Amino acid sequence: MGRPKKNKEDKLSRVVVIRLTEGELKQLEEFSIMCSQHVSVLVRARLFSGRYPKAIAPKVNILLYAELNRIGVNLNQLTRQVNAGKLPIGLLNVLNELSAQQKKIITHLLNDRS
Q1: Do 94 and 64 share a domain, yes or no?
Q2: Residues 44 and 67 in one domain
């Protein structure tokens, strides 16, 4: 069974040509990838609603953020044990360095996404 026919007024039959710089086109294509929508759908949504469709975070990034969160929780637990005297105090410097590195990675990922 085929797809139902659209009404004549609902068909996207008209073409509008716009000129963009290479940078503008690249930015528009990046937005379309983030939103998982075709460029024409993105432009129509922006033109008629005044905003872009909601960006969808790639699943790899969601899994990466979750993993970084688990690492942070583990670092926090180890730091508590060092402060409670259950682990050597020399380990505290290593944990602080790891925590700082994790924060740098998260900041880089967040800045890379925009």
Answers
A1: yes
A2: no
Q: Which of 23, 31, 38, 36 is nearest to 52 (CA)?
A: 31
Q: Does the predicted model carry a pTM greater than 0.70?
A: no
pLDDT at residue 61 greater than cutoff 80? no
- Is the pLDDT at 82 greater than 80, yes or no? yes
> What is the pLDDT confidence band of residue 60, given thresholds at 50, 70 and 90?
low
Decide if 35 contacts 55 (C-beta within 8 A).
Answer: yes
Q: At what angle do helices 22-35 and 39-49 cross, to 10 degrees?
A: 90
62-74: b (≥16 Cβ within 10 Å) or e: eeeeeeeeeeeee
Total structural domains within the chain: 2
d(CA 3, CA 28) in angstroms, rounded, equals: 30
Rounded distance between C-alpha atoms, residue 42 and residue 88, angstroms: 56
In-domain check, residue 4:
no
